[in-house]
Amino acid sequence: MVFVKEEIEENSSEPEPWRIIKHEEQTELIERKEESEELSEVKEESEELSEVKEESEELREVKEESEELSEVKEESEELREVKEESEELREVEEESEELREVEEESEELREVEEESEELSEVKEKSEELREVKEESEELREVEEESEELREVKEESEELREVKEEHCVKPGEKPLSCSKTKNKFLKKRKEKPINL
């Protein structure tokens, strides 16, 4: 055993082939380890890039949704404006309808005023006709009274003539004159006089 040990110690100055192989294997292992680490880093970077890509995709989707929401908001604003305009138009239509009703009422009032004016004119004419009728009635009464007075005057003239004829005759009594007068008055009573 001692001998083997010494032999090993004597030959230790020269590298043995298995040591070289081992060293190469270690170097290869180190390189593989480094490659593995690099691969791991690349994988991590790839995963990070994948995550970044996913986040970017999510951001793109969020941006698209934001744009869609913005469009929806704009459309909603347009709809609100359209609704407001529609409401204003409805109010204008209501005001127009009210104005039309007011115009119709005004027209009716104008017609009523015209009818009232016509009625007033008719009333005035009726009043004038009534006055004319009253004046005509008064005139008729005056004419009748005038006619009666004329008749009375004629009768009085006849009476005077009769009186002269009968009362002035010579040789007659004055009483006969009064008889003649009574006879004439009796005749006169048969004709009523409206005064």
Q: Short description, anyone?
A:
With 195 residues, the chain is mainly alpha-helical.
Written overview of the protein:
It is a single chain. This protein is mainly α. The protein has one domain (about 15-190). The protein has three helices and no strands. The N and C termini lie far apart (about 200 Å).
List the helices and strands and how they pair.
Blueprint: H1 2-10, H2 17-167, H3 174-189
Helix pairs in contact: 2-3
Question: What profile does the largest beta sheet have?
Answer: none
Count up the helices.
Answer: 3
Query: In angstroms, what is the radius of gyration?
Result: 75 Å
Secondary-structure element sequence? HHH
Instruction: Tell me the overall shape.
Output: rod-shaped
- Kindly report the average pLDDT value: 80
Percentage of residues in DSSP E strands: under 5%
The poorly predicted ranges are 1-8
Distance between the termini: 200 Å
The class by helix and strand makeup works out as mainly alpha
Q: What is the helix content?
A: over 70%
β-strand number: 0
Number of domains: 1
Descriptive keywords:
rod-shaped, mainly alpha, 195 residues
